[in-house]
Amino acid sequence: MYVNFWYPVCVSDELTDKPIRVRILKHDFVAFRDNKGQPALLADTCVHRGGALSGGKCKEDGTVQCPYHGWRFTAEGECTKIPSLGINGKIPARARVDAYPTVDKYGLVFAFLGDLPEAERPPIMPIDEYETDGWRATIQTFDVDYNYERSIENGLDPAHNEYVHSTHGYNGEKEEEYQVNELEPYKNNDWGFGFMHTFDAPPLKNWLMKRFRKEGGKMQAGSGTYGPNHMWTFIHLSEKMHMHQYMFEAPIEEAKTRIFLVNLRNMAITKREWLNKFLDKKIKERNMFVASEDIVVVNKLEPKMTPPTMTKEVLMPHDRVVVQYRGKLKEWEQKGWRLDHMALNELTAKGDVITAIPCPYRRESKAWALDPAPVFDALPEAEPIREAAE
Question: What's the pLDDT tens digit per position in 344-359?
Answer without folding.
Answer: 999 888 888 999 999 9
